[in-house]
Amino acid sequence: MTVSFVRQLGSESGIQLNPLRDNSEIPAGTNSDQIFAIAMRATRGRIDKAFIVNRGNAKLKLGKGEAMRVTELNEAWVQVQEALIKGAYSAVVSRLITDAAALKYIVVAEELNEVTDLPTGNYTFTVTAEIPTATPYLMCIKHLDCFNDGIKIALHADENRVDGANAANTILTLRLLDKDDDKIAEYTGSLIQGDTDDSGNSRYLPDIIEARTDALEVIIGSTQSIPVNSAMYGYTSAIADWVESDVLIYFTEGGTAYTTDDYQRATAQLAETQFDYAYIASGGSKSPALITVLSNLMHDTNRQLRFDVPGDLTPDEAITFVEQLNLGASPSAHLAHAFWAPFKSTDPTGINAKGHFGTASLNIAKACARNAQTNAKGFAPKNYPVAGREFPVDRTGIVQTYTPNNYELNALAKAKINPVIYENYTGGGRYVFRDSLTSAQVESSMKKLIAVADMSTSIDDAVTRYGKDVLQMPMEVSVKRMRDFLTTLFEGATASKWLVASSDPEMNGSAWRFSVKPNEVRPYDLMDVEYWLRYDGTNRQTHVTQTLSR
After folding, report:
1. Residue ranges of domains in the chain, CATH in brackets
2. Half-sphere exposure of residue 381, counting CA atoms within 13 Å on the CB side?
3. Which residue ranges of the chain lie beneath pLDDT 70?
């Protein structure tokens, strides 16, 4: 084909066609405000980094759950499952482990005849801490998803017809199963390094696995083909012959006596993960040490932490529980939100008997479901807090175990604790999140309102994301683009009722104003961005007066 241009002209005559320049891109949001993070005890899941789960794969990736009678730490599993069902798009999980946790290799080796020392066609499966060096093996497997309940390994090699007869095959299929024989993964590849398919792509089994997942490592040993007499070779009565192991316990959790170092390791994984999220859940943890390190993560990431105050505590005990955390001293105290639910309910997952289950993750789930409903300008109704009549606690078998009086409700509000209790409304009563207070130690400030925390963190996230987009650009271009972006953003927030007119004289009756300019001291490489916003508040109290007229 003849073209009328070139991509780069030298001194010759001709037409240079430059690559397409795109000025049409519009800053787009993400669905990170439908995702939450949690550090939790689980029976499955990676221990080397945080991973993401959704409603469809949560049980496969986290395990099928264990009763809270075994350990109350299992409540986190219940909360994650409920949250994913009730509105959260996904959860970013950092698995809690101790220093005693041990991940071992699964070694597959040919079984040798004790007399002749020749292969019998059968295979052995063993678990070892190190890769064997003295004895030959078929393959060494390291499963990084760390199932407490173990996995099974199954192997099969198809018949290989050469000159009309079966011959040894260098291609085999590796299948991983859980203890209930549910398939986890399956890969087919060659035992010979450097082997390629018809397209020139490597079909070496470790290369195929590495291209598809980072949760499995396979090392091929000295055996480079599967002989005809192998138990995994070919078919019997048109049914594939597989060699399958028993359940192999290759990972030990090492107990659940977590230390502060264990909590810090887990939260560091949440801070470093590539997966984004807008909320952090405590998972019903009663550990002040875990909630404290989660509050540090909250401050470092500007994400909201919603945590549970144990529902079996009295109001005085609940206040003591929160006071010992001293979250009000954090410069980001408005991002911490406490929920106290003094009722028993049926386990939403059916694993446990009726009991006290925290509601902080449920509150996050309902916030995620709310955030999925954006308007034409891309704004969710975050000016509506997840509280009151419109956001009931939709569990079954609820029995309230403590009913606080007005004086106790007053004390809870002063301690910045949000009760989750029964309330009467038009059309009947329901269990609801009765209040929407942050942990900020203020009386008359917008920082006390969860809705404001929700909106302000969303604005900060949008601005900082776009700020990254205009880094390493000419200063004048960066300033102009940031000004245009803020104007569009704040106009959209005002139209979406997030922002209302301010009474501050400096605001001149506007709901927002901003300043974007090069820094006075470092005008060449530093741009200053400041903005002032008047968010809409939340009606927490209504004073009603009736006057009798003559």
Report:
1. 32-98+255-453 (3.40.50.11780), 102-252 (no CATH)
2. 9
3. none
